[in-house]
């Protein structure tokens, strides 16, 4: 079992990945839904951190600090920092943001290392419209950080504004390197190998044909 299939199977069994009919924030009706928030045990977050760590190292991208956006990005960035230490002996600092700026004590909207002039990798769970990633980019650019790359668990490979693939739009606008661990194509391949789940394949293909970019 390859690591992509293993992660998809793991997410499905944990009910973080579901197939059916779901209304997304964008208003689209999707035949599948992924909620990383349901991967919430110690075992779950360790697995996610290891997955990100291996992907980051394999990419050979230079970076100084990991950034995770509140709230889902916080456990992801902590777990990845731990995995980088445990597997690669890299002591990589991390930072995350507050939803509201603190006006007393440790003031400001960021918690963790100073990021000015540092190379940052952004960690997120899913890319659909790209709104969350744009928000993270704005925070980091305001602090004069340099964004090395963006890593996501799932790229839905959907059209964003002006029918551009969300990730391609980010690349064109900002020239940031974006890496996805699994995509809708991986989900379709997984379903084709699972007899009890094959029935969902036509809906995913139909959705991809309507909203996807190849």
From TrEMBL:
Orotate binds at residues 33-34, 128, 156. Homodimer. It catalyses: orotidine 5'-phosphate + diphosphate = orotate + 5-phospho-alpha-D-ribose 1-diphosphate. This is Orotate phosphoribosyltransferase. The keyword Oxidoreductase does not apply. HAMAP family: PyrE (MF_01208). The gene is pyre. GO terms for cellular component: cytoplasm. Belongs to the purine/pyrimidine phosphoribosyltransferase family. PyrE subfamily. 5-phospho-alpha-D-ribose 1-diphosphate binds at residues 25, 71-72, 98-99, 102, 124-132. It comes from the Bacteria. Catalyzes the transfer of a ribosyl phosphate group from 5-phosphoribose 1-diphosphate to orotate, leading to the formation of orotidine monophosphate (OMP). Keywords: Glycosyltransferase, Magnesium, Pyrimidine biosynthesis, Transferase. Its cofactor is Mg(2+). Its EC number is 2.4.2.10. GO terms for molecular function: magnesium ion binding; orotate phosphoribosyltransferase activity. GO terms for biological process: 'de novo' pyrimidine nucleobase biosynthetic process; 'de novo' UMP biosynthetic process; pyrimidine ribonucleoside biosynthetic process. Pathway: Pyrimidine metabolism; UMP biosynthesis via de novo pathway; UMP from orotate: step 1/2. InterPro entries: OPRT, Or_phspho_trans_dom, PRTase-like, PRTase_dom. Residues 53-171 form the Phosphoribosyltransferase domain.
């Amino acid at each position: 079992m390859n690591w992509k299939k293993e992660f998809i199977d793991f997410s499905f069994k944990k009910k973080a990945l579901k197939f059916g009919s779901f209304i997304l924030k964008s208003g689209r009706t999707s035949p599948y839904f992924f909620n990383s928030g349901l991967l919430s045990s110690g075992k779950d977050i360790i697995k996610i951190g290891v997955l990100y760590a291996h992907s980051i190292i394999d990419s050979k991208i230079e970076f100084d600090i990991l950034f995770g956006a509140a709230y889902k990005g916080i456990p992801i960035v902590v777990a990845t920092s731990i995995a980088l230490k445990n597997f690669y002996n890299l002591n990589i600092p991390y930072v995350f943001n507050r939803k509201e700026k603190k006006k007393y004590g440790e003031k400001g909207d960021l918690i963790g290392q100073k990021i000015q002039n540092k190379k940052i990798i952004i960690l997120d769970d899913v890319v659909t419209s790209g709104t969350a990633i744009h928000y993270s980019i704005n925070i980091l650019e305001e602090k004069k950080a340099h964004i090395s790359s963006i890593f996501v668990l799932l790229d839905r490979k959907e059209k964003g504004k002006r029918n551009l693939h969300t990730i391609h739009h980010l690349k064109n606008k900002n020239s940031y390197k974006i890496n996805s661990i699994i995509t809708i194509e991986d989900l379709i391949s997984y379903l084709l190998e699972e007899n009890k789940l094959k029935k969902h394949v036509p809906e995913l293909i139909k959705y991809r044909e309507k909203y996807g970019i190849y």
